[in-house]
Amino acid sequence: MNSSVLNLPTLKSEDRNNNKWQSLYQIQGERKRIMRETCSKYKSNNRRIITPYHVSRIFVEDKYRVLYCEVPKAGCSNWKRVLMVLNGLASSTRDIQHNTVHYGNYLKRLDGFDHKGIYHRLNTYTKMLFIREPFEKLVSAFRDKFEHPNNYYHPVFGKAIISRYRVNATKEALRTGSGVKFKEFIQYLLDVHRPVGMDIHWDHVNRLCSPCLIDYDFVGKFESMEEDANFFLHLIGAPQNLTFPKFKDRHSNEERTTTKITQQYFAQLSPSQRQQSYDFYYMDYLMFNYSKPFEDLY
Q1: What pairs with residue 109 in β-bridges?
Q2: Is 137 exposed, middle or buried (0-12, 13-18, 19+ CB in 10 A)?
Q3: What mean pLDDT value characterizes the chain?
Q4: Contacts by 250-259 with C-beta closer than 8 Å and gap 24+?
Q5: How far apart are CA 180 and CA 165, in angstroms?
């Protein structure tokens, strides 16, 4: 039982005459169709049992009956703020600090419930995820974790990456793990014998949210965030004064990662590294209908 009995809330009768809502509703149908078709073509896990591991990234909002699968670098901080407001934990998204969002443990996760609680919510709540163009998401994660001081990613990932992939690394670089280059980061990502494990910030959406196992009702895209997010809030009957926040959560004075910025980073790689990176995220590209980011990819 991995699909919801409710599925996506249907449009209210007064919304059916609204071309904008009607069009957004059709877009949802199309996104879900492509996702399901990709799953049935490439995946054979239709009969697999959903375990707590599969739902460990899903946040629960019981008041409006929402399940949100967190995909880092695709608006997740602001989505958590919205869930906290829906839950009555804050009156406005503006009032919630970054650390409260990520380290406050105010939101429940689905794997914290027993088997019955997990299945009940999967079958009756509205399940949603928001995704982002895979290369753009990757560059956004790299800029955030490696181009700014970070007391976790530099010592844990940076040191291992520099010592494995940099020829003649300085003692200082090996000691601090700071200054990882994008090319070195990609070498780590594509290495089957990675010196350090995977991380949620650059893992596949496919692995984070198990969309072939869990039948999501709503698939939003970072690229059309405002429209998609406010449509979702409208569908679940959220308070009208609650809209999705537009502010950038961290390094707010820095330009958001765009297609142009992403291409500048990927231009540093060889064609074969670009191809391997595309292959690495191939299922995400296919499942969420993103076009190839470079013309020379096959």
Answers
A1: 59
A2: buried
A3: 91
A4: 250/77, 250/98, 250/144, 251/143, 251/144, 251/148, 254/143, 256/140, 257/136, 257/139, 257/140, 257/143, 258/136, 259/133, 259/136, 259/293
A5: 10
Q: CB within 8 A of 135, min separation 6: which ones?
A: 262, 266, 277, 278, 281, 293
Sign, CA torsion 186/203/74/29:
positive
How many whole angstroms separate alpha carbon 206 and alpha carbon 287? 9
pLDDT > 80? residue 150: yes
Is it the case that residue 247 has pLDDT exceeding 80? no
User: Do residues 293 and 266 lie in contact, with contact meaning Cβ atoms separated by under 8 Å?
Assistant: yes
The token pair that represents 262 in the structure block: 């992403």
Mean pLDDT of 205-219: 94
Report whether pLDDT(145) > 70. yes
**Angstrom distance (rounded) from CA 59 to CA 162:** 35
Q: Given this model, what pLDDT does residue 81 score? A: 94
CA-to-CA distance for 289 and 295, rounded, in angstroms? 16
Look up the pTM and report it: 0.92
Query: How far is the C-alpha of 174 from the C-alpha of 162, rounded, in Å?
Result: 6
